[in-house]
Design brief:
heterodimer, A: alpha+beta, 5-stranded mixed β-sheet, 8 strands, B: alpha/beta, 10 helices
Amino acid sequence: MKLKKLPIGVFCINKYNQGIYMKNIFRIKWTIGIVMFLFLTSCQTTYNVDRVKSEDIEQESTIIFVRPSQFHVFGTESLRDYVEVVYESANFNDTGYLEVNVGFRNRGGHRWYNTTGPQYQLMVKTVFYEHDYKSPSNQARVPLYETNWKTINLLRGTTVPYKTMCPNKSAQYYQVVVSELQL
Amino acid sequence: MKKYFNSIMILITSALIFSGCAATPTPPSTSYTRTLEPDQEDNIGGSFLESNDIRTIAYEITNSLLTTPEISGNDDIVRIAIAPIKNSSRYIIDKNIFMKRLRIELNKVAKGQVRFYSQNVGQSTRKEILQEQDEEEWDLLIDEIANYIGDSNLVKDSIRPLKVAVIPVKNTNIVGLNAESFTSLTRSRISEKSKGRIIFLAREENGRVIEQILDESDLRNLGLVESRSNNSISSVDYFFGGEFIAKSLSTQSVIDNIKAEVGPSEEDPGVIEAKGGISKEEPNVTKYLNVMLIDAQTGEIPLEKTVKVERKMQSGLGNASYLLTGELSALSKAAAGGDRSDYVILSFQLVEPRTNEVLWEDAYETKKVTNRSVLYK
């Protein structure tokens, strides 16, 4: 049965169509409810910021690569694919400071569609901690000392040494962060 | 109808939900300027040292310095004097920026183990502070002089009150102070302290006595007066005088600096104004005041007291254990069309000042090429 269409979108009220009318009202309310919910969430003054999950941090290595700025459905085009760590060592030197040595190498093209690979620059920084930053305690994740972002130039076939030290003798843990830091 | 409606609803809801993560948000901005991290590239060009290099230099050289035996093996505070970096590159830049960032980093991490001297900034204010502190002590100095004279046996054992004439203080040119006010204050305090045992002549009378002495001196020189004493004509027992003394091997005096400059007005830069003036620059030496009571009959000095009135403004560099300096060198290439290349090496040395030995040396080097040459300032 064809319903009479009213200008405001309300379906026809007909003594003979009570059932259909009730169903339409239900659908309209449902739609309004969802839309209102979506809109009202935007009207909040403040939001809670997501906290990093302890499980995620536990899985992080001492050398991590920051997610690149460009993300595609098929692959990330990340320079991470071209970086390999040749060596990593951390020890207390003669003066008692924690010293970190990492060797980065440009592995070049390693896929059938990319036979050469780029020569590129990366930014590397190290964050030192007094406590194990993988522990669930928030306090443990407060850095003791952070180096600046150092630019390293990765030529193919060359292992570039990255050496840093924490000038605070309380440092026990560290994490090296590698990024494509761009404008 | 129902099926069609449900499909539309699902599509609308999905579109609304996924629109939130569809694209990277563009941060809203009302400014033409962006704030960058000091380590970020600014994409302007140039092949010389950038802010990232300056920070890396500070971090790496700090680590290298802290591990030297001269610092790590020293339980005492290590005091370092900084000598400016020698710029041998083609770039005209603020070369102090390297030492400044390095000093900041060392001060931050060394936690008092390493100390530097303020060598450029705040010295005029420091001078004012020290001068004011010295002036605060003048009251104490005057008291010290008055007590010394008032409590002396010469004054205490005198049967009658001693008549004293004040003669001008010598060498006031090294301090540039109002010596007349200073002697007036001292005279008043001595008089108060001696409780009437010392009677000073009035100011005008002092002048008369001095004139008489000078006249008699002239007559003596001409051989017309043979008397050795002055009291026969001046009728005073003692002369109260003094002399400012500079602790220096060379002759010291207040220097008049004449300054004249023409340039934009500070209040209205559109107006060119000419300024000029004379400022007095006192010699930076420790200054003493030597006061004495001179016997009018014999010219002997029965009482004498020396007090320190102003200390030399020390730079403190004499206490430095080491000297930190460096040199900026570059090999620069330029081609037509703005292509530039620079190999830059910035070296640092820690020098033992007495032996002039280089105890430690480290360097930061980089090579950059650009097709957009820029002007560094």
